[in-house]
Amino acid sequence: MLKYTVRRLLLLIPTLFFVALIVFVLSRAAPGSPFDRNQDKPLPAAAIERLNRHYGIDKPLHEQFVMYIVNAAKFDFGTSLVRDRPVADIIGQGFPTSAQLGIQALLLALAISLPLGTISALKQNSAIDYGSLFLATIGTSVPNFVIAIFAIFIFAVNLHLVPIVGWGTPKHMILPTLILSLGAAAFLTRITRASMLEAIHQDYVRTARSKGLREQVVVITHVMKNALIPVATIVGPATAALVTGSFIIEFMFSVPGIGRLFVTSINQRDYPVIMGVYLLYAFIISVANLTVDLVYGMLDPRIKVGK
Amino acid sequence: MPELLEVKDLHTQFFTRDGVVRAVDGVSFQLSAGETLGIVGESGCGKSVTALSLMRLIPQPPGKITQGSITFDGQDVLKMDDDEVRGIRGNNIAMIFQDPMTSLNPVLTISRQISEALELHLKMDRAEARKRTIELLELVGIPSAKKRLDDYPHQFSGGMRQRVMIAMALSCNPKLILADEPTTALDVTIQAQILELLRGLAKEFRTAFILITHDLGVVAGMTQRIHVMYGGKIVEKADTAELFANPKMPYTWGLLRSIPRLDESRKAKLLPIEGLPPDLIAPPPGCRFEPRCQYRRDICHEREPELITVPKAKPDHEARCWGTQNVPGGGWLVDTDWRRDVGDVAKIEAIKEQIADLPPEVKRAEDTDGEVKP
Amino acid sequence: MATITARPQTAAELNILHRKQRSLWMDAWHRLTRNRMAMAGLVVVVFAMLVAAFAPMIAPRDPTAQNSALALADPFWVDSQYRNPDYPLGSDQLGRDILSRLIYSARVSMLVGFVPVSIIFVMGVTIGMYAAFHGGWIDNALMRLTDVMYAFPDLLFLIIIFATLRNTWAGDLMGGLVLMFVGIAIVNWVGMARLVRGQVLSLKEKEFVEAARATGARPGRIMLKHLFPNALAPVIVSLAFAIPSAMLAEATLSFLGFGVKPPTATWGVMINEGFVLVTSTPWPVLLPAFCIAIVMLAFTALGDGLRDALDPRMKL
User: Above 0.95 for ipTM, yes or no?
Assistant: First the structure.
């Protein structure tokens, strides 16, 4: 399995290369330069030219790209055009916050969905089942910024329970974490429920019962071990989705993570930062996808990892 | 000597959206210690449901044992509470299921799955249970048992997996083993091996067996007695040799006729039983086999025959057929040589046409929802 | 001797268990229509489509007409002095009628739902089937491409496309809609192609394909008549969920400010514009949010129903 992991990690390199290429091309497709953004106090053309030269963005595109790749291989991701600080620093500053938000949301989602999905499956067609299915459907279909709006309206505006913007204290963190976790919780609940339902109807459950085992033992030892395999494999990609998808929530609640950085850097044409953020996201997601296969291989004895 | 198992008037029903399915509709039989009984019938006749009922493994919604008594080793299984029933399962009565691939848990080692019952019922600790598991695996003929203890089901072939299931069933030395189609999912050559194994075990440990199958060939060499089931009821009871030599029910005749024989002339036509099994939600008032029977008469359509002893047969041979019984209104088949007289075939041709003409019906949603197979 | 004289109408009269069934599609249709949530969803979807189609006739006012004097009027159910009978659902901060904007937004949302998905369907199915059937370099290219696309979070990819191309000539086509269609299609077609490819691959080895080959059928015919119908069910379900996904993408993009260009109105745009004032006047934000929620719920219920109808064993 180690060889497989290494091989997959190495395959990341060409993937990231293509991601970089696509982002590079697209980000340069917009007209204008990062230094003529300011409409109110436009810089004189000569100043713009000097800045362009200083940062190397006046050179032909393919040269720029090659330079970027070469530097990236040395883990030098350039300097922000807007803030004049190394990209790695800037991203390193915002990333822990986004990661914290994402992981908190994941833990909350798991805490909600695993018990809820299991109970739903065990008490199929009961009030709890229908209730949680309904909530899960809402959670997966209504966009999370819409839910956020309703939540902000109810909890912050009307009830004045929590502040709307900011980060740092638990009070600030509740609403964004909760809203972010809802989408994942809804999805995980559905998966857990479906998986448990499928497992509990399998023949081997009947065999277990025929040996005289108590229902509790049957469910925990026989059913859950099978049912949680699909769920466990999703945790990786779910985390990735939460970390990379948190930027809407960050935007709405003014959380100082990468999400906000990302949105502003696109508007400002801060190319190195844009590239850095995309590469980071692509890396996280690829690693998460890799964990799916690895986790599957570890949990299910039928699967031999390594193709 | 009191019987090991006595089933009286068992009724098991399933409450579905389309009505109440009377899967087992008044079944009574007995079994002595050490005896092997065969229950034969086609899919849907209720044989598996009968076996599951004996261990109270019928899923409570939608199923329910509505009537009757099951006396095992002197106690009424239906009157026990849940703990007592669980005490019997795997311990005094064990079951072998049809498909060993799906009936074994893919993520647990076979050692774990066999030890479970040992630890639960015989209160063994891990080490003892492991030792006993190795003995059991060797007993059922699994080579290199010690090395394969911690293997998973998917690492075994079909025949080996079924042996594992048999080992599991044997583990607590049960008095009765229910084998539900134990060889149906296996190759023919492996079938023979497994049956051989079961036969040997029955003899060695004096375990009673109920062998459930649709295949007459399987019961021929294995059982002392055979019960034929159709439409949720038992329609014939006889000793094995007697059933094959002197069957007394047109359904059994049909079953025997549809097996091609080596000594038949090549020109002879295979005679299948035409038609479809009865609807168990609204069973007819008359004989359940009547629509498919070439020998039927009016009385067959109007009233259901009882299961009683029949003339020109051994004393404990019973059949549920007006034609073969010596009762008022019946008896027209008592002297029939079934091998020669195939009855009125025209009646059967008519039913084929009628089925073809029926308007199409919507497939019920429950049909694909993992229903209990009757 | 009893003979059954009357023609039996049901299996019950013959005392047999009836096992005949209709074709696969009729079966699926019946199961779908019995699903109440899915039917409710269908009603909502049809209603939204009608509103979208007849928008010019239904909307009371011009959705782009501004009137700052009448800005931020309240909807009729709010008890305040800012109500105005001309604006039943109120007006936004530029004085535009919310009701009319909601109606026209339905139009754009429907288009955004269906147009890209049609593109995805065509591209995904042709390339996926071709790749599966012929293998070789096309198949390899497709797999590598999907790997790269999987590494890209969908939304982020769309954002960069939009942020950069929005202000060019491409972004001006149809008020930014063409870019929206193409962008969404580009991001999602690969997934569809891979799905179709997987389906075809698993079916290709099945016996009925060999049988068709043995009778001399040409590859094109095999693809069309044999592989395609069998692979269709998961594709249909995937498309059913792709529609709300596309609508969601557009709403999110517009909400973030990267979406269609003014004056085109979409629900996402309305939320984006009204967000700053949500603490004082929530209705310009809540009403379009409500519309999005209902329509997406409806599509999801419909998608669930379709999936249950086409394969009831997929209990997800």
Answer: no
